[in-house]
Design brief:
alpha/beta; Rossmann fold; 2 domains
């Protein structure tokens, strides 16, 4: 059987890296003897994370474009040109059957080089608002897989495939509430809120939760609280609260939760949808093009989440969380809306699109 070769480029943040790794592992399942090479940006987190997952990676000396007019962009452009020609050399040497991009600095140079060399190309856009890299690449690549519906408004309609966003395998069938609560030392007969701002936490959410701890416990509401490493929770003399800087058992946290409070990153929202958990989404105000608000509106416009602005968190987060937990009809309606959005087989759908490309 012919050995298939796949070149994958994406990085800068976990939101680009982990979907790329999920696609790579699914390709290994589909093509057991395939060769996979990653290309990332030097000194970015992919240069550490990808080898930890067992894959080879090559780094390009590339920088991100400054959105404001800046002399620094002259260096960005120069490094991009160099990286483009480096990417062409990598592609020529590796000879991939398909080149896959998941966003990030290096992805632009690699995917542009691949398209110019007439390689079969596929990019993935996880957000409900297209990133600059993928906007530039849209007219050049063969297929565009999206995490949210309705992206035909942004990309060429004939190239768009709504596949959903890859989520970790363990979340596709999270454990039941009783088993999950047992792990965290919680009572499965009482409501549970899972709060996460990601690995760095979310100060506005954490500050509001800290102020509302006694209100929650007085209402018999339990918490699984991932604070992030930059916030230290004070839970003295309060029971029913599991607070930790970092949480590895995400499947158990979702399994225990009746409600999730989260930022509106694309992957977090995909996990919420796949797990079928009602959520209060608090978009981060500190992201490019305010894309988390656009992500959150994709859900709220379909009745699949409730959105609270970051500036309103202190005033309304606690009361909103309690109100929704006390409204079983609303919880049911949100779960029903999530079921129409969730794409638990997103990774497999992306692999099917790659297969079609290879056969075309």
């Amino acid at each position: 059987m012919q050995q298939r070769k796949f070149l994958i480029s994406g990085g800068g943040t976990g939101g680009h890296i982990y979907p790329a790794v999920a696609i790579a592992k699914a390709l290994q399942m589909e093509y057991p003897n395939c060769a996979i090479l990653f290309v990332g940006a030097k000194n970015r987190m992919e240069m550490e994370k990808v080898p930890q997952e067992g894959f080879d990676i090559v780094g390009l000396d590339v920088l991100g474009l400054k959105r404001a007019i800046s002399p620094a962009n002259l260096l960005v452009i120069w490094k991009f040109i160099k990286s483009y020609f480096s990417a062409k050399k990598i592609i020529k040497k590796f000879q991939p059957d398909c080149v896959i991009g998941t966003g990030g600095y290096a992805s632009l140079a690699v995917m542009m080089a691949a398209a110019r060399m007439h390689k079969k190309t596929l990019i993935w856009e996880g957000n409900g608002y297209a990133g600059l890299t993928n906007k530039i690449l849209a007219s050049r690549v063969n297929i565009i897989c999206t995490g949210f519906p309705g992206m035909e408004n942004v990309f060429p309609e004939d190239k768009v495939r709504f596949t959903g966003n890859p989520v970790r395998q363990s979340l596709q069938t999270p454990p039941d509430k009783a088993l999950s609560c047992q792990h965290f030392g919680l009572d499965p007969q009482k409501p549970v809120i899972f709060i996460t701002g990601g690995s760095l936490g979310a100060r506005s959410i954490n500050t509001a939760i800290q102020a509302g701890l006694k209100t929650f416990t007085d209402q018999g509401i339990q918490l699984i609280w991932q604070t992030g490493k930059q916030f230290e929770a004070n839970t003295q003399n309060l029971t029913g609260i599991h607070a930790t800087a970092f949480l590895r058992e995400m499947d158990l946290a979702y399994g225990a939760a009746d409600l999730v409070i989260s930022r509106a990153g694309a992957l977090s929202m995909s996990e919420i949808a796949v797990c079928g958990k009602p959520s209060l989404l608090v978009p981060s105000p500190n992201v490019t093009d305010d894309h988390q608000t656009k992500n959150a509106l994709q859900f709220s416009d379909r009745g699949a989440a409730i959105v609270i602005r970051d500036q309103d968190v202190a005033e309304s987060l606690i009361s909103s969380a309690i109100a929704i937990l006390n409204n079983p009809v609303k919880l049911y309606e949100i779960r029903a809306a999530l079921a129409s959005i969730a794409k638990p087989q997103a990774t497999n759908s992306i692999i099917q699109e790659i297969n079609k490309l290879l056969q075309s």
